[in-house]
Structures are given as structure tokens and as C-alpha cells.
Design brief:
The protein has 519 residues and is an all-alpha fold. It is 85% helix and 0% strand. It folds into two domains: 6-435, no CATH class; 447-519, no CATH class. The protein is globular and about 65 Å long.
């Protein structure tokens, strides 16, 4: 029997996608409330300073996938007796990694904050934000062994509910912030402190759930040097790759802060909120797919795994493209609507469009990266990809300081390097799993390219027609957003999906309609 459960993937994906729509809307609204409460300058300072250590948004994907890989691999082999040992060793490893990063952050990061960051004279508040951010980061890292077990067990309903709890807590903090001290500096410090409390609360939920329902999550110190070295090596190489991604992403934010000031940082922060929000659509889809990839590899079903790589690449991209295309086309309407027409730095629009493009390219990364991690052979992969990503920061720095390039050039450099790393990942997957590049191009990249070209051309044409028909910009933008969503869905169904996938979609829709009629 195949280890790949397509029906379970579809069910979990639908659940996580619906959950993510709610999280996305609440998260965007929360960002708007926080921006109003802090103002552009302090919002930019928070993003730049917290960015030194709030690396968890990137590290979480890689480190959480490491936990999932360890757990799912044992499940795929049917070796359930090893789950508790694996959990205990993984928690010890994450504790050691957390201690190392905390020490580095408080030493090297603290020095950089005091000597290099542009915080417009608000150094005391910036230091408090920095220290609270270090604590938040450590709490979130220590949560991964528990969160990884929930995902590896494919309990996506629990994962979805806890994610909703987290965004509701964050929204509550944002509302509370608006009714505190009128001094923006005090609000900034309070916001960072309350975010620590939010992380503690969510982590406590995960800890309690796993303690109650999973006997595998009862921690005890386990000394198994061979397994510890194997897992620590895997986690360590993944951490190196994650740090490269972090230095690239947050390093570019810091570069913008140093070169162009807090207002440009605020523009980057606004664009990043949109980027992280739509990127989570892909991350959540892969929370449903990743355990299946690992289990299929552990069960020796490599051919099925290769098919799942191509299928998940297409579907993850299409799920993201539904949200990305309307945002790209109507960002001039969406950002002022989101922020109620206030506090929208001019650079936000071009930053958002470029980050949307990068987000779409990153949608292609997860299937290949997860497949390589499933094999456990990650050292050479992380070294090559990590070094390539690290080139982005010096190249962007040289462009700004030697050639006077504008702030948006940093994102253009990042897009080019993301394309290069995707080619490198494809070569690694071909070597380690035997995925033919011709099959990958035919089954994944070609359908994606056709859907993008057709949907974009028709939507841009429709946008031009609406510009000439509607005098009201609001009506025009709403029509363009709705049309682009519809055309992406249609081209995905009739061009992007295979015949069997199309039949399954039709069956699911028919089943849903029948159930509604019975009700």
C-alpha cells in the first residue's frame, strides 16, 4: 500500500487553506492597527531592530521541517518505539541551538544595534525591543519539537486552531496597544513585551496538547551519541541554510535601514507583511504535503515521491498565484485600502510588487527542498544554497554604495539569485532522488508558465479596458481583482491540472453541492 495518502493531503490542504485565508485577513488588519498605533517611524524601527533576531519566520520553516522529517521518517518505517527517543533528542538539540543563537544575538547583535543601526535617536527603546525579540525567538524555537509532532501526526485541525488562537491574541495586543500611553516610544516597548507573552501562551498550548495526547512527547534526557550526532548534524546543516536565508532577508532590511533611513524601513515592513502573509499560504499547504514526502521516501516509494514533487509544485504555486496576481495588479488600490489611506510610504508599492514576484518563485522551492531533506543528505545542499543566498547582501550593498542604485534594487538582486538557487536545487534533486529535469519541466514548470502567461495577459487586458470604462477607481479595482481571481481559477483547472486531478476536483465540488442540498 502506498505511503502517499492523496485524500488526506487534499483534506488537510483544504483545511489549512481556509484557515490561512482567515489568518491572512486578520493578520493584515492587525498590522494596520499596529502601524496606526506606532506610526511609520517606530513601526519601521520595530521591523528593522526585531529583524536582527526575529528570524523564526524563516528558521521555523526549516527547523520545523527537520522535526517533521525525524518523526515522519520513524512513522514511515513503522518504528514507533523510536519516536519518544527521537523527540527527546530533538528537544535537547533545539535547546542547545537556542542557547547558541541567544548568546550570539546578545553579543554580536547588540553591538550591531548600538553601532550601526539607524534608530533616529531612540536607542533605549530599540534595545528593549531587541532583548524582548531575543526572548520571543528562543521561545518559538523551543516550541518546534512539539509543533513538529502535531504536524507529523497530520493533526492539521489542531495546528489550524492554534494558529487562529495566535492571530487572535496578536489582534488583541494590537487593540490594547492603541489604548495605552500616548508616547509612541513607550508603545513600542510595550508591544515587544506583549509579543513575548503571546509566544509563551501559544507555546504553552502546544506543550499541553502534546503532553495530554502524545506519550512520545514526554521529555527525558536520552544519551545516544550516534543518533545525537546524526540528528545534530542534520539540524546544524539545516540551521546554516536557514541562517543564510535569514541574513539575506533581514540583512536586506537592515541595509535599507542603514542606507535609506526608518521611513524606507517602514515601506519595507509594510511590503514584508504582505509577503509573509501570502507566503504562509504555501507554507501551510506544505505542512500537509511534507509528511507524505518523507513517509514515501522512508517506505522506499521513490517513484511515487517524484510524482508528488511535480504535483505539489504545481498546486502550491497555483494556490499562491490566486492571491498574488490581484495584489500585484492592484497594489495601488489594496495598500491604501488596507491602511485606510494613511501612513503609506511611496516605496511600499514597488517593494510589494517585487516581493510578490519573489514569493511566487519561492513557491517552487518547498517541494524540492523538502525532498532533499527527506533523504537526510543535506550538507552539500545547504552549503551550496547557503553560499549562493549569502551573495545577495554584498551584491546589493555594492549596487547601492558604488553605483547609487535605489532601494528597490535589493529586491531585484534577490529575485535573480532566487532563480539561480532554484536551478541548483533541481540539480540536487536529480542527483539524490533521480528526478528527471525533462519530467520536472514538462509536468511542473510548463503548466505553471502557461497559467501565468494566460492569466496575466487576460487580467492586464481586462485592467486596461476597465481603466477606460470606469471613472470610479474603487469599482474598477474590485472588478479587476475579481476577474483575476476567476481567470486564475479557470486556467488552473483547465490548463494547470492533469485530467485525473481535474476529475477529482469536479467530484469534490459535486460532493460538496450534494451535501449542501441535503442539509
Amino acid at each position: 500500500m502506498s505511503a502517499i495518502d492523496q485524500k488526506r493531503i487534499a483534506k488537510n490542504t483544504l483545511l489549512l487553506y481556509v484557515r490561512m485565508i482567515v489568518v491572512m485577513l486578520v493578520g493584515l488588519y492587525t498590522s494596520r492597527v499596529v502601524l496606526d498605533a506606532l506610526g511609520k517611524e517606530f513601526f519601521g524601527i520595530y521591523d528593522a531592530v526585531a529583524g536582527i533576531v526575529l528570524m523564526a519566520s524563516f528558521i521555523s520553516e526549516t527547523m520545523l521541517s527537520a522535526c517533521q522529517r525525524w518523526y515522519a521518517f520513524e512513522m514511515g518505517r513503522g518504528n514507533h518505539n523510536e519516536l519518544n527517543r527521537t523527540f527527546c533528542i530533538s528537544f535537547t538539540i533545539f535547546f542547545i541551538i537556542t542557547a547558541i543563537i541567544a548568546i550570539l544575538a546578545e553579543t554580536a547583535g547588540g553591538w550591531f544595534l548600538e553601532n550601526k543601526m539607524n534608530v533616529s535617536g531612540h536607542i533605549v527603546a530599540a534595545k528593549w525591543v531587541f532583548h524582548f525579540s531575543v526572548i520571543s525567538f528562543c521561545i518559538q524555537i523551543l516550541r518546534f519539537p512539539y509543533q513538529g509532532m502535531v504536524v507529523a501526526k497530520e493533526k492539521m485541525k489542531v495546528y489550524a486552531y492554534l494558529s487562529l488562537v495566535e492571530v487572535i491574541i496578536n489582534l488583541s495586543i494590537a487593540f490594547a496597544l492603541a489604548h495605552t500611553s500616548d508616547i509612541k516610544e513607550d508603545r513600542l516597548i510595550l508591544y515587544a513585551a506583549l509579543m513575548v507573552g503571546a509566544q509563551l501562551l501559544v507555546s504553552a498550548f502546544y506543550w499541553l496538547y502534546c503532553k495530554l495526547f502524545y506519550t512520545e512527547c514526554h521529555y527525558r534526557f536520552v544519551f545516544d551519541m550516534s543518533k545525537f550526532k546524526e540528528m545534530f548534524s542534520y539540524a546544524g546543516w539545516n540551521m546554516i541554510g536557514s541562517c543564510a536565508d535569514v541574513f539575506k532577508s533581514y540583512g536586506l532590511g537592515i541595509l535599507i535601514n542603514v542606507a535609506f533611513g526608518p521611513i524606507a524601513s517602514a515601506a519595507k515592513a509594510i511590503a514584508s507583511k504582505v509577503y509573509y502573509t501570502i507566503r504562509q499560504l504555501n507554507a501551510n499547504f506544505f505542512s500537509a504535503v511534507r509528511p507524505q514526502l518523507v513517509k514515501s521516501y522512508a517506505a522506499g516509494e521513490v517513484a511515487e515521491m517524484r510524482n508528488l514533487i511535480c504535483q505539489s509544485t504545481r498546486i502550491s504555486f497555483f494556490l499562491l498565484f490566486v492571491a498574488a496576481l490581484p495584489i500585484f495588479l492592484e497594489v495601488d488600490f489594496i495598500l491604501p485600502l488596507w491602511l485606510r489611506g494613511r501612513n503609506v510610504p511611496a516605496e511600499s508599492y514597488i517593494f510589494t510588487r517585487l516581493l510578490v514576484i519573489e514569493c511566487l518563485l519561492n513557491a517552487l522551492v518547498s517541494p524540492l527542498a523538502s525532498s532533499i531533506q527527506a533523504t537526510g543528505k543535506v550538507r552539500n545542499y545547504q552549503i551550496v544554497i547557503g553560499l549562493t543566498l549569502l551573495l545577495i547582501l554584498p551584491v546589493a550593498y555594492l549596487g547601492i554604495n558604488w553605483f547609487g542604485f535605489p532601494a528597490e534594487s535589493v529586491f531585484m538582486v534577490s529575485i535573480v539569485m532566487t532563480l539561480i538557487t532554484q536551478v541548483l536545487r533541481t540539480l540536487f534533486v536529480r542527483k539524490q532522488i533521480g528526478l528527471l529535469i525533462s519530467d520536472y519541466l514538462k509536468k511542473a514548470i510548463l503548466p505553471i508558465t502557461i497559467v501565468v502567461l494566460v492569466s496575466s495577459a487576460l487580467s492586464i487586458g481586462f485592467q486596461a479596458v476597465c481603466d477606460n470604462i470606469f471613472a470610479d477607481n474603487t469599482i474598477k479595482s474590485i472588478c479587476v481583482v475579481l476577474f483575476s481571481v476567476l481567470i486564475v481559477c479557470l486556467t488552473t483547472v483547465f490548463v494547470g491540472l492533469t485530467q485525473s486531478e481535474r476529475k477529482n476536483v469536479m467530484k469534490m465540488m459535486a460532493s460538496y453541492v450534494c451535501n449542501k442540498k441535503r442539509q
